[in-house]
Amino acid sequence: MNILEITLWIELFLLVLLVISSPIDLLVHFWALMNYARVRELPGGGVTRQATIAATYFLVRGYLLDFIVNVFWMSVLLREWPRQLTVTSRLGRHAATGSGWRFERCERIQILYLKWFDVKHADGIHR
User: Fold this and answer.
1) pLDDT along the chain (127 residues), means of 10
2) Number of C-alpha atoms within 13 angstroms, CB side, residue 54?
């Protein structure tokens, strides 16, 4: 094996690892960004410039993870090709239908992992 073959195998391994770990990575990024948004909205509680830079990094990386999860994982889970670029858009489309097995799966994902952390929806829940 020459160095090019070794490098290609390593890159393939890293790509597979990224795809496998992308759902949990996306969830952690989402939770971190929602926490940043909460802190930013606190009265008198500003965030530092370093925190904003870190949040921007998480946002950009999160969009990449969002795309990967949408194309690979959500396509398998919902048994359909993606029509949207992000998981959030896809979940919203199925949530708007109000019925069917895809609606139920999407609603379960939203309730279990997203609803309690989302800044937009957390006001009506409990703080």
Assistant:
1) 93 93 93 90 83 94 93 94 91 88 92 80 45
2) 11
Range of the domain at 104: 22-122
Does the residue 40 lie in any domain?
A: yes
- Tokens (6 digits) for 43: 């009265």
Residue 107 identity: E
User: What pTM did the predictor assign?
Assistant: 0.79
Domain membership of residue 2 (yes or no) is no
- As a dihedral over the C-alpha atoms of residue 49, residue 50, residue 56, residue 61, rounded to 10 degrees, the angle is 180
**Total domains in the fold of the chain:** 1
Joined together, the tokens standing for residue 104 give 């139920």
Residue 30 lies inside a defined structural domain of this protein: yes
